[in-house]
Amino acid sequence: MDAQRALLDELMGSARNLTEEEKKGHREIRWDDKEVCAFYMVRFCPHDLFVNTRSDLGPCPRVHDQKLKESFENSPRHDAYVPKFEAELAQFCEKLVMDLDRRVRRGRERLAQEVEPAPPAPLSAEKSEQLSVLEEKIKNLLEQVETLGEAGKVDEAEALMRKVEALNAEKTALTQQPQNDKILMLAQEKKMALCEVCGSFLIANDAAERTQSHVTGKQHIGYGMVRDFISEFKAAKEKAREEEKLAREKEVEERRKQREKEYESRRRSDSGDRDKYRDRDKDRYRESDLDRERSREWNGRGSRDGERDWRYKNGRDGGRDRHQNRSRSRSPGRHSHRRSSRSPVRRY
Length: 348
Hints:
The chain has helices at residues 2-12, 20-24, 38-42, 66-74, 78-112, 125-151, 154-176, 180-189, 208-215, 218-330, 332-342, and strands spanning 192-194, 201-203.
């Protein structure tokens, strides 16, 4: 019924039974809606693998639509959603495989365990009496064997030992007879085998047709697909992790080389700056020395010129002063008149 409904939905659309008024408020389902099966979109839905088997999961509660799957495959967001859907499917499949492996482990333990012999059942009075007689005979024969051995009668001792062995075999058969049924059950149990893929019990050395029928069955193929997908998903995840690790290592190496290059560039720049500053200092010191030399030269020249000027000036001015002094000393009237003009005449 569900398959027919899904077929009609695929052919006529999910709104085929709605009226015109209902269709106005109806919204078509898109592939990214929650009611759409993400497992079916990206790979397979486990609910479809075990139909009518002992591992049947029942119908999937979400929508399976081939058109929605095609829409998802053609969507520009396809690559962005695939990792998310695959991770969800892997999580679901791992839970299935964990439950299956638990059943396989129990079945393997059941086949591998040794059937412990049951405690001997109590013997009847008749068998107990027979057992006592046998034990007594064995004891007497062993004493005779010991006596004959000490006397050096080896042949007689060996004959008696053969009788002792026969009596021991009779005793063993008498005590182990009730366990024959248990031994038969153990032999039948060891004829069974276990399928490691799907956990089914098989008959060892069964006919090829029956073995082939099991291998091509839904349960075996379904669990094979689940296990293969998990292995593929883990391998892809590990590969992506390795690529990411290599990318990080490459980035770290590139950063290290860049830092070394920058350090070398700074070192060369600092060395160049130091050389430039050193040359500049040398030039500055050289110019300073030249300035000092020039200053000394100018100072020496200036002192000589100053002395000459001083001598010349002092000589010229000195002569003038001496001439003025002599003139003053030669004209006392001028000086007295000047002095009298400055000081008032006191009258008596």
